[in-house]
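Exercise 7. Given the encoded structure of a 94-residue chain, write a plausible sequence.
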């Protein structure tokens, strides 16, 4: 083994992946409303789930005019995956 090669960093060891669902409502090619549908986190407190949900809505807001997500009229559901360090999640308090 070559000594200068180091072990690759594994995100599984020090971070969590949390999935949340948002809904973007389009009318006349414009995003009118973005709502949070659900945060899938079994071990999160209420304050942590709210913070994750706020981040999911913010990311959906930034992606609202992405050509993959855009619609003329209707509703687009997005699955937003948020990766957060375990220590950062533990630091979220009420």
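Solution.
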């Amino acid at each position: 083994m070559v000594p200068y090669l180091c072990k690759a960093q594994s995100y599984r060891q020090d971070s969590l992946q949390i999935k949340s669902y948002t809904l973007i409502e389009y009318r006349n090619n414009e995003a009118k409303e973005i709502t949070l549908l659900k945060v899938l986190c079994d071990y999160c407190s209420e304050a942590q789930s709210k913070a994750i949900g706020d981040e999911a809505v913010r990311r959906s807001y930034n992606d609202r005019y992405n050509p993959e997500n855009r619609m003329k009229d209707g509703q687009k559901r997005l699955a937003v995956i948020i990766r957060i360090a375990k220590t950062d999640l533990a630091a979220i308090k009420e």
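Remark. The mean pLDDT is 87. Students should compare their own answers with the one above.
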